[in-house]
Amino acid sequence: MPSLLPSETKQSISNFPKTNNSSTMTSFKQIVTNGSKPADQSQTTSTTTTTKSVVVISKSTTMPDVAMALVKQSKRQQDEKMLEEKRKVFEDLELSTIIGTGTFGNVKLAKSKTTGEYFALKIMSIPKMVQLKQTMHIRNEKNVLELVNDSPFIVKLLCTYHTNQYLYMLFEYVPGGELFSIIRNKVKLDTKAALFYAAEIVCALECLHNLQIVYRDLKPENILITRDGHIKLVDFGFAKRVMTKTYTLCGTPEYIAPEVILQKVRKTNKSIFYFLSEAL
Question: How far apart are CA 108 and CA 123, in angstroms?
């Protein structure tokens, strides 16, 4: 499919080194992004040693208890191994310029010292998230991105890691910039380009809606353009799974449909049509 990027944007992107996200995804598939806390060890009296595991038992311990203790011990060892693998991945990154900012931190361009591939590293302050009571939104963002990681129109989350102070989310790098910048530079998109972008936005939302996920912050600033001119939806801080209904008013006021602000939404919500007609 031919690229629909403006010529000046294509020229600036063409000089940027290409990355092989398919090989990167293969290497990251072995790292599970669902970090879990180590299980508590049982507090008893005597010990019995098995191969590569230590199970603590007492007179009242039954065989199911021993089996459960072995499972917990094995899971704890797997968690420690995955944490070490994640640490090595993030230590291999060389950070450079800031390519995005947010409430809890910023997004930096990162380069792998081993492969030379480029990524986008989102760095968020954990104390600030706790202070603003936004931990649930961040958890929802991570869970949603893991569910839709195979969509071609949604940015791919490759790996996550955290320290006592910061939460790190490693994404594929999208070098084309925001759709907002393209619209601002061109003043108005031609019909062909507007229809193309609108179709891909609808495809991204269709993927989310099939999983009962609402995005709730659709705007040109959250739509990035790939090297080939296709869209990537980013920033899932407001996204969540809704099995029935939700009445929370959230998003960016400039892009919220009037009936949503006035709380007069009926069976047919025209928010997406409002966005596509006004923004594109």
Answer: 8
What does each C-alpha distance from 125 to 8, 163, 190, 191, 238 come to in angstroms?
36, 10, 41, 42, 18
Q: Is 151 helix (H, G, I), strand (E, B) or coil?
A: coil
| Integer Rg of the chain from CA | 23
User: Which DSSP category does 272 fall into?
Assistant: H
Give the torsion sign (CA, 155, 235, 202, 277). negative
Angle between helical axes of 7-14 and 179-186 (0-180°, round to 10)? 140
Angle made by CA atoms 60, 65, 68, in degrees to the nearest 5: 165
DSSP letter (8 states) at residue 214: E
Q: C-alpha distances in angstroms, 172 versus 32, 36, 78, 90, 145?
A: 17, 24, 26, 14, 12
CA distance 189 to 6: 10
Residue 84's Cα: distance from chain center in Å? 21
Residue 134, classed as helix, strand or coil, is coil
Residue 272: pLDDT above 70?
no
Residue 17: C-alpha distances to residues 12, 50, 52, 156, 157 (Å): 11, 51, 46, 19, 20
Element holding 143 (H helix, E strand): helix 135-147
Number of H helices, E strands in the chain: 9, 11
pTM: 0.68
Element (H, E) at 213: strand 213-214
Q: Which two tokens stand for residue 198?
A: 């609108």
Q: Please list the active-site residues.
A: 217
Express each pLDDT in 187-224 by its tens digit: 678 889 889 999 999 999 999 999 999 898 889 999 99
Between 266 and 247, residue with greater pLDDT: 247
